[in-house]
Design brief:
By secondary structure, the protein is an alpha+beta fold. The chain has 11 helices and 22 strands. The two termini are 20 Å apart.
């Protein structure tokens, strides 16, 4: 083993211990599977600082698809969907499959309804049964290993013909989602989630008859994952309930309309209200991928009480096994009636914010992977020198530095110390200049998740540095 690698491997347990103790700090919005994080090693078992509801393949997997088979390489980003029979259900793109626990690393357990790619398809009964799918580019081939989530019988009093016309299909290069026509503050406006517009910047909205609904500039809620825009195409929309707390009770029937699985048809998903909060309404209507931006309609009044936004998935423990939360999946929508204010960035500013969030999140992942590899003593610098690696220059400089030194010499160890100091610095260098006032609430909320992860990473690198400095002072310790 090279001298610097032996030296780093000897102190790298510090970062592994800190990261294991803290676990993986949550980072909202599950990965769409298009990132290029360094490849996962099959021997890794350390927690991953990753996006919520995400994990990574530790070995290649070949999956049957409509067009033959698709091989996903080691290190592929996956979205976590649930667990059944000891296996973990995951997805890459719209291709959903089951793996054994040893085949993934970095597992977190929160997912958010997002937008499948235009190519996503499903069996004829997938929409009716409400399959929990995911966004992406591949056509999925479902098998009997996949856990299906069945819809309850449709509430007989719900008039689909009356309300279905208020659902909009969102379509863009990066995927598909939903939108809603809502009578809000005296005008019929288009309402969707902020994350839909962040992830699908060129989203176009159309009615089910394919008539496009052009919009004006979007405004974004201060304190909620919501966006609203004026439109002049449609003169009717869903009436918004102005006081959900007084008019809605737990147990009331609801219906979620949406572009489930990005199928470009209006689906009807019935359920009940299971909880109310200051900003959120929780329902057991099993909305799925593509339903982001869908209206949650109170059946008794026919009014909008929320916009379908995200789901959380977690293991069912002994305490909750015999409770109403024994499914492990909970679904939430943001309330429109409690939004206190709106922010009005330009389209360019909002997209610039989205790119900043993406860049910060990518660097977080690379910083974790490199620290994890150091803790495992399995350091391959080449994978961190790819053209799109945010650590490329730092790693390349270190590789050049130690390349001309005598293996195991004092200068080599000092170079390793400089490398660790630089990594500690990099955990904060890109986020320290960021200021709350420069971002919409939604994107700042996303950044705060990464900032929590970076705090853990800095502590881990600083602890590694302390161990390394002590070992250099006393090599026999």
């Amino acid at each position: 083993m090279k001298g610097w690698l032996f030296f780093l491997a000897g102190v790298g347990c510090a970062i592994g211990a800190v990261l294991y103790f803290h676990g993986a700090p949550p980072v909202d919005h599950a990965d769409t599977g298009t990132g290029s994080a360094p490849a996962e090693t099959a021997s890794s078992t350390s927690p991953l600082v990753s996006q919520t509801g995400a994990c990574w393949l530790t070995k290649p997997v070949t999956i049957p698809s409509t067009y033959g088979t698709v091989t996903l390489p080691q290190g592929t980003a996956l979205r976590y969907l649930g667990e059944q029979g000891g296996n973990i259900t995951v997805a890459n793109g719209s291709m959903t499959f089951s793996v054994t626990p040893d085949m993934v690393a970095g597992l977190t357990r929160q997912v958010e309804p997002a937008a499948p790619e235009p190519q996503a398809t499903a069996p004829d009964d997938a929409t009716a049964q409400g399959f929990l799918s995911t966004a992406g580019a591949f056509v999925m081939n479902l098998t009997n290993r996949i856990p299906w989530i069945h819809s309850a019988p449709l509430v007989s009093s719900f008039d689909f013909q009356k309300y279905g016309r208020f659902l909009l299909i969102a379509d863009g290069t990066a995927g598909k989602a939903s939108g809603s026509l809502v009578l809000y503050q005296g005008k019929v406006r288009l309402v969707t989630n902020a994350h839909v517009l962040s992830e699908i910047p060129d989203a176009r909205f159309s009615q089910i008859d394919s008539q496009e609904v052009p919009t004006g500039a979007f405004s974004y809620a201060d304190g909620a994952d919501l966006a609203v825009a004026d439109q002049s195409t449609c003169t009717e929309g869903l009436e918004m309930m102005t006081d959900v707390d007084k008019e809605v009770s737990v147990g009331d029937d609801v219906v979620v309309l949406g572009n489930s699985l990005g199928s470009d048809v209006v689906t009807v998903i019935p359920g009940k209200v299971t909880g109310l909060g200051p900003d959120l309404v929780e329902v057991d209507a099993k909305f799925v991928e593509g339903n982001s931006g869908s209206p949650i309609i109170h059946v008794k009044t026919g009014k909008l009480i929320g916009i379908a936004t995200f789901a959380t998935v977690r293991n069912v423990d002994l305490l909750s096994k015999d409770s109403q939360f024994n499914s492990g999946v909970r679904r939430f929508g943001y309330r429109l009636d409690t939004v206190q204010g709106w922010q009005h960035p330009s389209a360019g500013q909002f997209m610039a914010e989205a790119k900043t969030v993406e860049a910060v999140r990518k660097k977080t992942e690379y910083l974790f992977y490199l620290g994890r590899d150091l803790s495992n003593g399995n350091v391959s610098l080449s994978k961190y020198q790819a053209s799109d690696s945010p650590l490329r220059d730092l790693v390349t400089e270190f590789g050049s530095d130690v390349g001309g030194l005598h293996p195991g010499g004092l200068d080599t160890h000092e170079s390793a110390l400089r490398f660790i100091r630089a990594l500690s610095y990099e955990t904060q260098s890109d986020i320290n200049p960021l200021r709350r006032q420069d971002f919409t609430w939604y994107h700042w909320h996303e950044l705060e998740m990464d900032m929590q992860a970076r705090t853990v990473l800095k502590k881990a690198y600083d602890q590694m540095l302390s161990v390394a400095e002590a070992r250099l002072d006393n090599p026999f310790r």
